[in-house]
Design brief:
The chain contains ten helices and nine strands. It has a nine-stranded mixed sheet, sandwiched between helices. Helix 2 links the parallel strand 3 and strand 4. The N terminus is likely disordered.
């Protein structure tokens, strides 16, 4: 039986500053660093090339932003954004992320990453593989289905008619609520697609991947998702 997606109602803007660790400060990771910093959160950015390569980004963000190694960003963050290529997931630090909410923005592109049979045949999903690598973290899949330039510019105030919504999946309701609240702060509603096993519903080539849609429309698009392995 298909689980109907439902809208998550975030509790509103946080009453205290959250430290956001960013592992992978490219298009999506760097954009999220800018957006979270603009809401007053401390951001700690990192990439695979070293903190010294992030001085321009840190200077642009300003405030309390700082650059660090991936392990240091993981250790510092109350919530940690993982925005690295799928191939790099196994290199992520495990212990510093223990007990933390981890936002997975990644996409699996077989042309770049090579084929993974368990994903291709529907036995697992990319975010479930990240969760398996981080067994003591709470992984939430989000921000993979929006372009970085849209993420930076299309956020609107809570309650705005037609406000854009983003799909989300995760196994921990409390982690999803935390991430939903942060997403509301930066201008977006979220629609819950269910557990990580349902994250395929907004992977590449699915109707919910990339549309500029409000919550009701996005929920319908998530429900329309199909994959070849389910028909086998």
């Amino acid at each position: 039986m298909t689980r109907e997606p439902e809208q998550v109602g975030p509790p509103g803007r946080s009453s205290h500053m959250t430290t956001i660790g960013i592992i992978g400060s490219g298009n999506i990771g760097g954009t999220l660093a800018r957006l979270f910093a603009a809401q007053g959160h401390e951001v700690v950015v990192s990439n695979s090339r070293g903190p010294e390569t992030l001085s321009e980004l840190v200077s642009e963000i300003g405030g309390s932003a700082r650059a660090a190694t991936a392990a240091e960003a993981a250790e510092a963050g109350d919530v940690v954004v993982v925005s690295v290529p799928f191939l790099a997931v196994d290199s992520l630090p495990v212990e510093p992320l223990a007990g933390k909410v981890v936002i997975d923005t990644n996409n699996y592109y077989w042309e770049r990453d090579g084929h993974v049979a368990d994903i291709d045949e529907g036995r697992t999903t990319p975010s479930e593989m990240l969760q398996a690598h981080l067994p003591t973290s709470s992984v939430v899949k989000l921000f993979n289905a929006i372009r970085a330039d849209h993420l930076l510019t299309q956020g609107t105030a809570s309650g705005t008619d037609g406000r854009r919504a983003l799909p989300l999946a995760g196994d921990d309701p409390a982690a999803k609520a935390t991430v939903a609240a942060l997403t509301d702060e930066i201008g977006y509603d979220v629609v819950d697609a269910g557990p990580l096993a349902e994250g395929w519903r907004f992977d590449r080539d699915q109707p919910a991947y990339g549309p500029e849609a409000d919550a009701a429309t996005l929920a319908d698009l998530l429900a329309r998702a199909t994959r070849a392995s389910d028909a086998a």
